[in-house]
Specification:
heterodimer; A: mainly beta; five-stranded mixed beta sheet; 62 strands; 14% helix; B: mainly alpha; 20 helices; 42% helix
């Protein structure tokens, strides 16, 4: 913060500079006003002046201060005028001006609040002309100067090329000047705009459009690394840039990175469970971070979720992906997984005062509820039938299932089992049993699950942005509101405020400030202690009767006689009515996030620029959950800490409060700041030798803390709580409790009532980057960076390990021998470099790292310490070497353009826990454990297929291929067959391997058989050898990408994106219920199991054996469930989104006081092509386990975009 | 250069310089993490629950520890238990099943060597204290010496425990050449190629460490989870007892006994005549639920009978459901002996499932470290072997009076040999099915006169026979893999 305030105070000084522009045009810039006040000029038009021997500039400034009238003039004119004496008291502006200009060779005109100063008596120059020479009265040239938006530009310099005559455009953008015969060219220049030289060629009316120059180069040709914006032409690195237009109408997520799917090669977005969601070019680490670094406005953001909170996708100008070493190594060690650079929008400077541009964007997206049919679960009849088929009172005697056992301290019996036991115990007859089966079989709880536990999921977003600017100041601001209603009845409201301002003090000094504030509120539906999930709940388990009265489901928690005994002993009601539970809870959660980002640019010398940037980011989360004394959670816990009365008349002894509930709070605070100073040298004017040099230092710190509290016996109204004896409950424990906790003979309470944690990391970095281009053809890039951090417990000397890169590019299309009109661009690139991953603070170094751990057992003996990490001074960084080669091309006047990249990444010294000799005292230590490589190809093609007046069609195609392999990996113990099946990383295979058994079918007893690697028949688990599981592929897509088509016809446009992920594999979801009691719902595959001899000819599904130990000693059902025959291709393609947009005609928009108005409709996830035959949607699936997840249906979005006049 | 430019340049320069002085900026210690500096931090190293249980633990950043396994082998290798196929197969750890069968190679190549790792893992903590505490800050010399002594005593006892699994049993005649286990006195994760010490070197080391530590330790028992002088004297006595040097053992054990009174916390026997005849809150035994055994028995760190805790945790009742007391051991209990009530032939959870034998239902954990009953049994045996029969009987009856009605507690045997045999039987009764027997088996195997090892276990139709070699576990394959030069046991 000190640095920020220094920057701030520094600018205060600049405020006082009297002369800020060497070709200054506008006086009276207000430096630190907020943009909203920009046009709120002083309304007084009365002037009082008393000045002696002052420059005109000072006079103008004072008039501006008093009246708000701005002056436009040319510096040279005022220099000629010299100094003036003035004394004016309470005069109008007109009177004052006539006094000021009296006797000066200047004239002026007033329009609105602008005063244009121009030389008086143009004829004077004619008088001075050589009389002998016939003036060539080439017709005076006139014209109007506008910007790209068609707005008039006032104050543009117009200069003749030879005679050096000049004019300035007036308030309407009109200019007029006479030229000499020698003048062939007119030069139009304006600060902030590209200077144009236009051949006169005898024209007399020349309307000119000036394009903004920017401070930043044109978007198409530049890339942003976060540290600098480079001409893409001059970089050898592998970049891809996606502009707002390509992702702004996607409604699949409010995270911009989700929206990049299929638009950019190299980035894979994975939706299945147990996979890294975002990967750039495969994975480069096994244990360290695998996710890319996310940079917003030049500064890394603390974490991905903060990015979603703070940055509305609408406000993003562009996103750049940095993929190879040359692109990313400027980010140092953090860049090994690639970098995503997000640039937010800013206002545009404008010569003329103009109205603030206001736009509205909004959409509402209806997403529905998960598709319950996707699970293929049994209905009640099927379930009851299955329960009857497999009932075995010998394997599970009534006396056992109804008694507490060490691993099942609260026995349960499901309703269908109850009937079966009643029947077998001859409590009811067959006819009564049949009646009860029928009534259970006739129930179906799906509608109730839908209506009571779910809601249709919806996402809506509304944002209003406004922007504007003058020559010296521009701003872009937005207000946004997002509401996300999840199907599980959790709702999120998010409010965002964003304001970016650019201050242009002069040609040499610029400042930008961005402020973001986001507030998020979460409201959760707490359905506590619901056993299992909605998907596994027995289908007849009704939540409510038909009269809509909530029903007890206590049978899910304790069997009735057992429950009554517990209730009698504890005198605590143990009924469980799920639908009443939410009413016994309260919760609240809110997050406030802020970001302040400021940058300063000072041109120091010709070509040399100082750039400073600082960012402060903070977010705090406050949340609480409250379960009152009626909630099952509180009642149930109390039972475990109650001693039963010893006699019939005595009372139970309670060790937990008998009134009040559980109150849990959570408070997270994060802040991070970055301050950067860099010097940039550019000699871009030199045509032969273009050099860019960048060097800088950066300080970065991030901090996060978490405080959690948990109070029992809390009264929400009085905010007080009852005391409990933590030492007793946590160490001595309750003997002879009413119910035992699982595997306990004395019940011990987890008394962690408070938790605190805090992490602070600091970094200091030095970096440099250079680019040299010779004649626009040959480019060399190099960069280097060193990071030092407070990596605690590590040796600072070991940290000065630079990461670096070099690269070269050859622009063939600029070679004289390559003269073809076909190619606009053909460039070859090659780079090589190093990046890495540093150990996380506190994970190894020359000291033993300890952490405090207190336990009730050691009360009074001093703070306890545990050795977190043993000393290990041989630890080094994870290092990734990347070679990248690429071709950029553009053909037929950019009708077809794109690039191809090929890369090879080798990561060595992978960090992770390494098995070591337990004799040393540690069986694992954090160390360097192996290496892996990634290879791949990336292609992007953009084509403009049709470009007509009314009809156009554009295509973007991206394709990526990535293959990775673990080259070496130290293991904790020898590899086992079950390791292989579970998908751990194994030397010689892909990082996400999938292995299966060679299943050959069922034997005539209905048990599965498999073939071993040596072709022996396997039946039991203990026969399996390490080589028996066979590699069948990887769960990570080998090929992925997207195809976008954008078609527009008159006011209609249509765009759609097809994404594809190919070449990977997954386990099928199959029956996994082969033994034990039927306590949860199961997929219908169970019905097709082997039941009698001969079935093995028609089914592959093993038989059911009630007794679990008989089942495990007879066969190994994994041969089937994890068999190769149950592994299938996970390849799929999906129509991710299809959008139809209608843009209303200008006249309709105008009638509504709008400049533009468009509406769009979008459908997402409507078409799916899969290679599997089992109707599995691979996006809602766990590839490794073969489990279906909540599948959301196709969803629909309606959106509106308007820009107001 | 214009004035403003100069100003800005100067400003930039100031900025760059101000940032370059960043040493203090990076010099922050993250909260929750630290390196050992103060004497009290070294003290805190001992306040770690993992150090009093035999658990092989993996510590991870953030203070999370995951359990790799526990060191329960001594229980399974005892000669006082039996099992049957269905029950033994339910044990999740194959090594323990093999241990039960006295197999030559209990550990699979892929196994964590928990019995080895648990003890060496704890050693790391003691070794960092030994190497660093004397140079630590903000502590008195006396305090530092006390902590150093505690670390050395704990370290010595850990070596004793691991040597009694993987090292040859002590035999005076061959100790110089018999192999024990590596002596590890440095905390170094990069150490490699460990060498096994001889049995003599190992015992010399243990005795030296304990002897030198004793004077600096706190004189009285002030916590059952922290080392004290009586605890170390017990350990020294137990080491000599295991070496069958009974007179020297008796000297240390007597010193221990003398030091037990007057401490901040009581060290005394529980009277089972009360505790095993009443239910909570006064007692532990619920007559209507006899299968629960002594279900209210205090947790070991709260038990008055313990001097210092080195707990063999039986990880769950699953293991307990697999092991049953041999009938001949069960027959040693008199019907009035309340210790018999700890065993039941139905499962502990509900008393409904019939078992093929009597299982120890609770307490399931046992303290293999200093405890009062064993102190009394050891002194009694030392006295008996030294022909102090009266003294031996006094110690023995003092224990028995707390385990059964006083009338039944009297020891009636008269000869020295009978008394020693009676004491050995009493050890069975006190520690049946706890793992304590393993130490007696190793001690008595070379005792020509009182060797009472039961070398056969029946297991369904199979019979397993104990050979002398199997009283020493072979070095786990995992350890041999790291130390290819290490000599394995026969």
């Amino acid at each position: 913060m000190m640095l920020l305030s220094t920057i701030h105070s520094c600018f205060k000084k600049w405020e006082s500079f009297s002369r800020i522009s060497k070709t200054g045009k506008v006086l009276g810039i207000s430096l630190f006003i907020t943009c909203l006040n920009l046009n709120a000029y002083s309304s007084a038009q009365i002037v009082t002046l008393d000045s002696k021997e002052v420059t005109l500039q000072k006079v103008f400034k004072e008039i501006y201060r008093q009246t708000g009238y701005q002056f436009f003039y040319e510096d040279a004119l005022l220099d000629k005028a010299g100094k003036v004496n003035l004394s004016v008291k309470d005069k109008t502006i007109e009177e004052t001006l006539s006094l000021v200009f009296n006797n000066l060779p200047l004239s002026y005109s007033i329009k609105n609040k602008t005063i244009v100063v121009s030389p008086i008596k143009k004829a004077v120059s004619y008088e001075k002309k050589d009389e002998n020479k016939e003036p060539i009265l080439a017709n005076p040239i006139k014209g109007k100067i506008t910007n790209a938006a068609g707005e008039s530009m006032v104050g543009v310099n117009v200069l003749t090329s030879s005679s050096q005559k000049g004019a300035i455009s007036d308030i309407n953008g009109n200019y007029s000047l006479e030229v000499e015969a020698e003048d062939k060219v007119l030069i139009f220049s304006y600060i902030g705009y590209v200077t144009r030289s236009v051949n006169i060629d005898g024209q007399t009316n020349m309307d000119i459009i000036l394009l903004e120059e920017p401070f930043v180069l044109q978007e198409v040709s530049i890339v942003a690394t976060g540290y600098q914006r480079l001409s893409k032409e001059r970089s050898a690195g592998s970049f891809s840039m996606i502009k707002n237009d390509d992702f702004n109408v996607k409604s699949n997520s409010m995270s911009v990175i989700d929206r990049l799917e299929g638009l950019v090669p190299g980035l894979s977005v994975n939706y299945g469970r147990n996979s890294e969601k975002f990967l750039i070019r495969g994975l480069t680490s096994v244990n360290a971070s695998k996710s890319p670094l996310i940079v917003v406005d030049g500064v890394p953001i603390f974490d991905g979720s903060t990015m979603t909170s703070l940055v509305n996708p609408d406000d993003i100008e562009s996103v750049t992906l940095l993929r190879d070493a040359t692109a990313a190594s400027i980010w140092g060690a953090a860049a090994a997984n690639g970098v995503i650079v997000i640039t937010t929008k800013k206002g545009k400077t404008s010569a003329a005062p103009q109205k603030i541009q206001v736009n509205y964007n909004g959409f509402v997206s209806y997403r529905g509820v998960p598709d319950l049919d996707y699970y293929n679960l049994m209905n009640s009849n099927q379930l009851v039938q299955a329960g009857r088929d497999i009932f075995d009172a010998t394997a599970f005697p009534w006396s056992v299932v109804t008694t507490a056992a060490s691993n099942n301290s609260t026995p349960t019996v499901m309703p269908h089992e109850q009937v079966l036991y009643d029947l077998s115990r001859k409590i009811i007859g067959a006819d009564v049993a049949q009646q009860r089966f029928d009534s259970l079989g006739g129930l179906n709880n799906r509608d109730q699950l839908r209506s009571f536990l779910q809601q249709p999921s919806k996402l809506s977003n509304h944002s209003i942005n406004f922007n504007g600017g003058s020559t010296f100041h521009s701003f872009y601001g937005s207000l946004a509101y997002t509401r996300d209603e999840n199907f599980n009845k959790n709702n999120l409201d998010r409010y965002q405020l964003n304001l970016r301002q650019d201050f242009i003090f002069s040609d040499a000094i610029r400042l930008d400030i961005t402020t973001n504030i986001a507030y998020e509120k979460n409201d959760r539906f707490l359905l506590t202690d619901f056993p299992g999930t909605v998907n596994t709940l027995l289908p007849y388990a009704m939540l409510s009767d038909n009269g809509e009265n909530p029903l007890s489901m206590a049978y899910l928690t304790r069997h009735q006689p057992f429950r009554s005994i517990s209730e009698n002993q504890s005198r605590i009601n143990l009924d469980y009515v799920p639908l009443l539970e939410p009413g016994y809870t309260k919760n609240g959660s809110s997050t406030l996030s802020t970001r302040l980002n400021g940058g300063l640019t000072v041109k120091i010398l010709k070509g040399l620029t100082y750039e400073g940037r600082a960012q402060y980011q903070r977010s705090t989360l406050d949340s609480y959950d409250y379960y009152d004394q009626n909630s099952y959670r509180v009642r149930n816990e109390r039972v475990f800490f109650t001693q039963a009365p010893t006699t019939a008349t005595s009372n139970p002894t309670y060790f937990l409060p008998v009134t009040g509930g559980h109150y849990l709070t959570n408070n997270n605070t994060q802040y991070a700041w970055t301050a950067r100073n860099q010097l940039l040298y550019e000699n871009s004017k030199n045509a032969d030798h273009q050099i860019t040099l960048l060097a800088g230092t950066e300080l970065r710190a991030d901090y996060s803390s978490r405080i959690g509290t948990f109070k029992r016996g809390f009264d929400f109204q009085t905010l007080t709580y009852s005391y409990i004896d933590e030492q007793f409950l946590g160490s001595t424990g309750v003997t002879n409790p009413v119910n035992f906790l699982p595997s306990r003979t004395i019940n011990i309470l987890n008394v962690n009532q408070h938790s605190y944690s805090e992490v602070e990391r600091r970094f200091f970095s030095l970096y440099g980057n250079s680019a040299y281009t010779y004649k626009g053809k040959y480019t060399l890039n190099a960069s280097i960076r060193m990071d030092q951090s407070n990596l605690f417990g590590s040796d600072p000397a070991a940290q000065y390990k630079p990461v670096w890169s070099v690269g070269g590019a050859w622009n063939i299309s600029k070679e004289s021998f390559f003269s073809t009109s076909t190619f606009d661009l053909l460039k070859l690139r090659a780079t090589y470099g190093l990046s890495g991953n540093a150990p996380v603070p506190g994970q190894g170094g020359p000291f033993d790292i300890i952490g405090a751990r207190n336990s009730a057992i050691f009360a009074g003996l001093g703070t306890g310490y545990v050795v977190f990490t043993p000393a290990n001074d041989l630890l080094t960084w994870e290092r990734t070497k990347t070679i990248n080669m690429g071709i950029d091309f553009s053909l037929w006047n950019q009708r077809l353009s794109g690039y191809v990249d090929v890369y090879d990444k080798l990561t060595t010294d992978l960090l992770g826990f390494v098995p070591i000799d337990p004799t040393t005292g540690f069986s694992y230590a954090y160390d360097n454990l192996g290496s892996l490589k990634n290879r791949g190809i990336e292609v992007q093609l953009n084509s403009i297929n049709i470009k007509g007046k009314d009809f156009s069609w554009r295509t973007i195609f991206t394709l990526s291929m990535n293959r990775n392999e673990i080259l070496s990996l130290k293991r904790s113990s020898a590899l086992t067959f079950s390791n292989k099946i579970s998908g751990v990383q194994i030397e010689g295979y892909s990082a996400y391997p999938l292995f299966g058994y060679n299943y050959i079918g069922l034997d005539n007893a209905g048990n599965p058989l498999a073939l071993s690697a040596t072709n022996d028949t396997l039946k039991l688990a203990n026969q399996i050898k390490i080589d028996d599981p066979t590699y069948s592929g990887t769960t990570q897509p080998l090929w992925y990408g997207g195809l976008t088509n954008q078609i527009s016809y008159k006011n209609f446009s249509l765009s759609f994106l097809v994404i594809f992920n190919l070449g990977h594999q997954m386990r099928l979801d199959v029956n996994r219920f082969y033994t034990g009691r039927l306590l949860t719902n199961q997929p219908t595959y169970f019905e097709n199991r082997w039941k009698k001899e001969g079935d093995e000819l028609t089914t592959d599904i093993p038989k059911y054996i009630a007794n679990t130990s008989t089942s495990s000693t007879q066969r190994n059902t994994n041969f089937y469930t994890q068999g190769l025959s149950n592994i299938t291709s996970a390849s799929y393609a999906k129509l991710r989104d299809l959008t139809i947009n209608y843009q209303f005609g200008k006249n309709i928009a105008n009638k509504l006081s709008m400049k533009e108005l468009s509406i769009y409709g979008q459908v997402n996830n409507i078409l799916l092509w899969t290679k599997n035959q089992n109707k599995i949607d691979p996006e809602y699936y766990d590839y490794q386990l073969g489990v279906r997840l909540d599948r959301m249906p196709a969803f629909y979005t309606f959106g509106l975009r308007a820009s107001f006049k | 250069m214009k004035k403003s430019t100069i100003k800005s340049f100067a400003f930039v320069l100031y900025f760059v310089i101000s940032i370059s002085s960043c040493d203090t900026f990076l010099d922050v210690t993250p909260k929750g993490l630290d390196v050992l500096k103060t004497t009290e931090q070294y003290n805190g190293i001992f306040n770690n629950a993992n150090l009093f249980s035999y658990l092989n633990v993996r510590n991870q950043p953030g203070g999370i520890s995951s359990l790799l396994g526990s060191a329960e082998m001594p229980l399974f290798m005892g000669d006082d238990i039996f099992s049957s196929a269905g029950f033994l197969n339910a044990i999740p750890t194959i090594a323990w099943q093999n241990g039960f069968k006295w197999s030559a190679d209990p550990y699979l190549p892929t196994d964590e060597s928990n019995e080895w790792g648990a003890f060496y893992n704890q050693l790391y903590n003691y070794n960092i204290v030994v190497s660093g505490v004397m140079a630590s800050e903000a502590g008195t010399l006396e305090r530092k010496k006390e902590l150093l002594a505690e670390a050395r005593a704990c370290r010595a006892f850990n070596h004793f425990l691991v040597a009694n699994l993987f090292g040859q049993p002590y035999d005076e005649n061959t100790a110089a050449t018999d192999l024990s286990v590596p002596i590890v006195v440095n905390a170094d994760v990069n150490a490699s190629d460990f060498k096994r010490a001889s049995v003599k070197e190992m015992y010399d080391f243990i005795i030296k460490e304990l002897t030198e530590a004793i004077p600096d330790l706190q004189a009285k028992v002030y916590s059952r989870v922290r080392m004290s002088r009586p605890a170390a004297q017990y350990m020294l006595g137990m080491v000599y007892f295991q070496m069958r040097n009974y007179p020297t053992a008796l000297k240390s054990l007597n010193e221990c006994r003398a030091g037990l009174s007057g401490g901040a916390i009581p060290v005394q026997l529980y009277n089972y005549n009360t505790t095993m005849t009443s239910a909570a809150p006064t007692g532990w035994f619920t007559a209507s639920q006899p299968w629960r055994g002594a279900s209210g028995y205090p947790l070991l760190y709260n038990s008055d009978e313990n001097i210092f805790l080195r707990q063999l945790s039986v990880s769950s009742t699953v293991n307990r459901n697999c092991l049953f007391l041999k009938p001949n051991i069960l027959a040693l209990f008199a019907t009035t002996d309340h210790r018999r009530k700890l065993f039941f032939d139905k499962n502990a959870a509900n008393g409904t499932i019939a078992l093929p034998g009597f299982m120890r239902n609770s307490p399931t954990s046992v303290n293999l470290g200093p405890n009062l009953p064993n102190l009394m049994l050891m002194t009694a045996e030392c006295k008996a072997r030294g022909n102090d029969l009266t003294g031996a009987k006094t110690d023995l009856e003092e224990l028995r009076k707390n385990r059964m009605p006083v009338a039944n507690a009297t020891v009636t045997v008269t000869t020295q040999d009978d008394l020693i045999r009676f004491i050995l039987d009493e050890r069975h009764r006190e520690y049946a099915s706890t793992g304590m027997r393993w130490f007696d088996m190793r001690r008595l195997v070379k005792d020509a006169k009182f060797n009472n090892l039961d070398r056969t276990k029946k297991f369904d139709s199979e019979t397993f026979t104990l050979t002398d070699s199997r009283l020493t576990l072979k070095i786990p394959p995992q350890i041999l893999q790291y130390n290819p030069n290490m000599v394995d046991n026969p």
